[in-house]
UniProtKB/TrEMBL annotation:
It is found in: Membrane. This is Uncharacterized protein. The keyword Transmembrane applies. The lineage of its organism: Eukaryota, Viridiplantae, Chlorophyta, core chlorophytes, Trebouxiophyceae. InterPro entries: TDE1/TMS.
């Protein structure tokens, strides 16, 4: 009887232990093979924590003596303490990723100890370091945090600029890939035409909705009308430049995609206007929405930032000339086929490690090809450091203390003009990519 009752319990315990071992092994293998995904997850947790601390943490921060000591009993409002929470978590992530960017500088091969020890390994240690960096800034005086907030105002635009460059690169590569595929299958040309027409139709549709939502009748909304009209003019101008006969790589597909993004930035700028602004009819409707609806919108914004940081940090081809896109072994194989021998000194090709092998009574040096990293680790961490700054500005309205309601992110006049400036810079960058080969024909812009 005892054996009958003991056996199922033993089997259940064994199965649970095996399941835990398997899960642990799978998790460790996933972390070793995809450090980018793991860091992206930790970064997501940080920005969610910053958002929650901004909306629900002021009561706790008011009890920290090293923060309230400077006010001598006359405490500021909750909005100030909410901003302090965001700045401190952002600062911790900036220090963490910035330090890793410096430490991982010039890592080119997977045999580098920094790859195995810091980038892909010791995740329990790195998890503790991440938690420490999110907590320690709360022990710093407000003056240090205030200095960081001003630094973030100047660092965040670089993250926006990286986003724009990535967008331009993606649209051009998309166009080139489908044009090349269309040489064998004409359906790709039809798809390009369909997406192009759809993008321009989207621009017109967005413009009509913007006039309806942000220029209501009975109010003086000349600013909004000017911004919407200017956005349409920019779309027309960049399309005309694309079709100019002297433009070498002009194509309507990238122009349509950039035009659609331009109109999206116009919408994003106008919906960032204060909710009580008379010309922001959409904002009044959003203010009346449920907390769940607003929360979903905020989470989508944060996810888009994380995805942009992940893509920008992984896109080494766009921002680097180091050649991280092709395995080093394959390049050496072709070089040896062309030259018939290794090009390095002492018969060892560059980028290889030498290994001594003993045979009989002597020994010889055997070159062993090293595997090159697939992306620039330092660039990856640097992009996340800039994204940490951008999150601080996103959640605080670029440093304005407007005291907006909970669950709202990126609302205020500063956010409006930052997005308008981003729109203009995006159009200018695209036009420059078309005009530069014409203005400087002797330079290689490939």
């Amino acid at each position: 009887m005892f054996a009958i009752t003991w056996l199922p319990s033993c089997l259940a315990s064994t199965a649970a232990a095996c399941a835990c071992s398997c899960c642990t092994a799978v998790t460790q293998q996933a972390l070793r093979s995809s450090a980018r995904a793991a860091w992206s997850l930790l970064f997501t947790l940080s920005i969610v924590a910053a958002w929650l601390a901004r909306d629900f943490g002021p009561a706790l921060l008011k009890k920290l003596p090293w923060i309230v000591r400077r006010f001598a009993g006359d405490l500021p409002d909750d909005a100030w303490f909410g901003q302090q929470a965001v700045y401190r978590i952002s600062m911790g992530n900036f220090v963490l990723f910035g330090t890793l960017a410096v430490v991982m500088f010039d890592v080119k091969y997977k045999s580098d100890r920094r790859d195995t020890a810091l980038h892909h390994g010791h995740w329990l240690l790195k998890l503790g370091l991440w938690a420490l960096c999110n907590v320690l800034p709360f022990f710093l005086p407000p003056g240090v945090v205030g200095a960081y907030s001003w630094l973030a105002r100047f660092g965040s635009p670089f993250f926006l600029l990286i986003q724009m460059v990535i967008l331009l690169d993606v649209t051009q590569n998309w166009n080139d890939a489908w044009v090349e595929a269309g040489e064998e299958d004409g359906r790709y040309f039809h798809a390009l035409l369909g997406v192009t027409l759809g993008a321009y139709a989207g621009c017109i549709t967005i413009a009509g909705l913007l006039y309806h939502w942000f220029a209501p009748g009975g109010a003086d909304c000349s600013l909004n009308i000017s911004l919407i009209t200017l956005s349409l003019v920019l779309c027309i101008v960049l399309s005309l430049i694309t079709m100019h006969p002297q433009v070498q790589r002009g194509s309507l597909f990238p122009a349509a995609c950039i035009s659609l993004y331009t109109m999206y930035l116009a919408y994003s700028a106008l919906q960032s206007e204060p909710r009580d602004y008379v010309c922001n009819a959409l904002g009044a409707r959003m203010s009346a929405a449920s907390a769940t609806t607003l929360t979903v919108g905020v989470l989508l914004t944060l996810v888009s930032v994380v995805y942009s940081a992940f893509r920008a940090g992984s896109n080494t081809q766009t921002f680097s000339t180091g050649g991280y896109d092709e395995p080093l072994i394959a390049r050496h194989e072709r070089q040896m086929e062309a030259e018939g021998t290794s090009a390095g000194l002492d018969g060892v090709a560059p980028g290889t490690a030498s290994m001594e092998r003993t045979s009989g009574g002597g020994s010889e040096i055997v070159p062993v090809a090293e595997e090159q990293v697939t992306y620039n680790y330092s660039q990856f961490y640097l992009v996340f450091a800039l994204a940490s700054m951008y999150i601080a500005m996103l959640m605080t309205g670029w440093g304005s203390q407007a005291g907006e309601a909970k669950y709202l992110i990126n609302v205020g006049w500063t956010s409006v003009w930052v997005k308008v400036a981003s729109q203009w810079v995006t159009v200018a960058l695209y036009c420059w990519t078309l005009a530069a080969p014409v203005l400087f024909p002797d330079r290689d812009f490939s």
